[in-house]
Design brief:
The chain is an alpha+beta fold. It is built from six helices and twelve strands. The structure holds biotin.
């Protein structure tokens, strides 16, 4: 596992995507990013004090597309598991892969594909208390406990959890994920391509990684990446 460290970089995901000599579990860690990328092309505000990193996972041709579709969920539960080892708080898993605590987001995950690698980029709010435009919707470990943490300890803990969860039986991993399901029982609004499909009550995450939602008495399944959900 090679580790590349930067004080400042445009984006750790972009850095790995541009390396021609990528190896499995290459990892890049930065103190800040000038052009951090979020999901749906959003800007990811990357302030000092955050754990900002990306690592590469080489595609194994023996695994199916279905197994790789689970990567965002596996990454999410790995962040939750890693954070729990550092500070045992009441974290929740918000489908598809946000980690929440006290109803606020504490990390963001972006999984991308380049050649035969998946790039897993993670930003965790650790010692920072400035969350940019998401100020009222985000929190950090330090905000909650008043303590300072080693961001590298957190990063290596998360990567170790990822290695563990990625090789685990999916049914076991899914059970873990469901035990932290933030949305379960909540009324959520389903938004597809910017348009509201109505609202319903979120249920479990099912085998294929889809979210079950009860809409007007009928259970419907939604795919990872297909919809955007808004808590009502
Ligand atoms: C989200 O929108 O919630 C996902 C945010 C992902 C941010 C991380 S920070 C490290 C890595 N580098 C990037 O440019 N993005 C990811």
């Amino acid at each position: 596992m090679r580790i590349f460290r930067f004080n400042e970089i445009d984006s750790t995901n972009k850095y790995l995507k541009e390396r021609e000599d990528l190896k499995d579990y290459d990892c890049v860690i930065a103190k800040t990013q000038t052009a951090g990328v979020g999901r749906r092309g959003n800007v990811w505000v990357s302030n000092e004090g955050m754990a900002i990193f990306s690592f590469a996972l080489q595609e194994d041709k023996n695994l199916s597309l279905e197994e790789y579709m689970r990567l965002p969920l596996v990454a999410g539960i790995s962040v939750l598991g890693g954070l729990k080892k550092i500070e045992n708080l009441d974290y929740k898993f918000k489908w598809t892969n946000d980690i929440y605590i006290q109803d606020k987001k504490i990390c963001g995950i972006l999984v991308e594909k380049i050649r035969d690698f998946f790039i897993i980029g993670i930003g965790v709010n650790v010692n920072n208390d400035d969350f940019g435009y998401a100020q009222d919707k985000a929190t950090s470990l330090k905000n909650i406990t008043g303590k300072f943490y080693s961001t590298e300890d957190i990063i290596f803990c998360i990567i170790n959890e990822f290695k563990k969860y990625f090789s685990e039986n999916w049914e076991y991993v899914l059970k873990e994920i469901n035990s932290y399901n933030y949305l379960k029982g909540k009324e959520i609004e389903i938004i597809k391509y910017g348009e509201s499909l109505g609202s319903g009550i979120a249920k479990d995450i099912v085998y294929e990684g889809r979210l079950k939602v009860e809409i007007d008495g009928e259970e419907k399944l939604f795919n990872i990446g297909e919809i955007h959900i808004k808590n009502r």
